[in-house]
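Fold this sequence, please.
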Amino acid sequence: MMRGSGISRGGALLLVAAVMLLAAHLGLSRILGAHPWWAVKVVYIGVAIGVGLSLLVHRWRGGRAVKIALWGGLLAVAVAVTVVGKAQFVASYGDDHLAGRMWFLGWIASAAFLYAALVEGAAGAR
């Protein structure tokens, strides 16, 4: 259902998922620093989690800007964890399993929070 200039919540959920998954399959997550073996997998997992997060927060009465700021802040933390995890993992020549997990889970969290922020921005523009 279209209202004003925005798209419906369901349309935003599908559109953002399609764009993020297409970008992952085109290699964007690998280019941005994800490990080639799981560069696409982390986006699939992150989008699935992001759908749940987006639907969970949808009923919250906070304003659109507050929701986008929430997702943006969480995205910044997730990216920081990802960068630190990758640097530590690479510096340890793959022996630091905690750093590897930080890198992997940081990518999943980054994808989830980016997805939720994009959905809120697309669906909220009405």
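The mean pLDDT is 92. The chain has one domain: 9-124.
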